[in-house]
Amino acid sequence: MTSPLDPATASHDSATASDPASATPLSRVTVLGTGVLGAQIAFQAAYTGSDVVAYDIGDEQIAVARARFDGLAATYLTPQGLRGATEETTREALRRVTFSTDLAEAVADADLVVEAVPESLELKRDLYARLAPLLPERTVLATNSSTLLPSDLVDATGRPEKFLALHFANLIWVNNTAEVMGTPATSPEVFRAVVEFARGMGMVPIELKKEQPGYVLNSLLVPLLNAASALLVKGVADPETVDTTWRIGTGAPFGPFQIMDVVGLRTVHAVSVAGGPEGRAFAEMIQRDYLDRGATGRESGEGFYSYPAPSAE
Known about the structure:
α11 (265-273) packs antiparallel against α12 (277-289). Helix content is 42%, strand content 12%. It is α/β, with parallel strands linked by helices. It contains twelve helices and eight strands. The longest helix has 18 residues, at 59-76. β1, α2 (36-47) and β2 (51-55) form a beta-alpha-beta unit.
């Protein structure tokens, strides 16, 4: 889970369209999963010069992904978008993206595969086991998991020296951090190549010296969100009151429940289910009051708050 910050202050030298001199060896990229963050990763990689394959499991998901990519291209041109973006650069980014529902085809020529599927250990391990015989020998494999350690997954990959975590923040073009976290088996050369790839994407690489659940960002953010959800579950305060208190008291642009809406309530639910009794109670509330009626957060136009229109971000 990740935090949306003020677009006027949060972005740190985010890149515009790249030139050949800025290219890294990891230039052909496949992103597995075209949800909110997977689409952002794929589009930003394409915008900064990579040839990108966006993979998902079916035609319905791909149709949604195409609309999401078009929405991202439009968002990049708004005041809340990417500084320096133009119609030409966003059109060129869209041209660099191809879509696939065939896993073998999607990864056949990949230098880097970024996995951005739902936050389930079983699902991710199953995917890696299916990927292992399909990947070219040179391919680097990265997980964007926000809560699982790469060591939880590495033995399913078949390439421990070429596997690590590459974790992006939501609203990637504004909150442009990329946390790079290896395992003891990760090759130092692979780690450096992924750091440089992230830099080439316009990200600020955050290099972790050892594995840490939640990386740096979520180690700071998750306690805030847990505290907010506990206040709601206990009946102490409603989301609007919690958010207002946080914004006034800290000067932050968003409160914790607003952040959850941007993260997406499906992700919040998946993380909460794995928590203690309060976390599971919060997950039950999210399922019953929001997910069961299609309210998944900002992307659907409704979560803890209602939004004017579904967001493509």
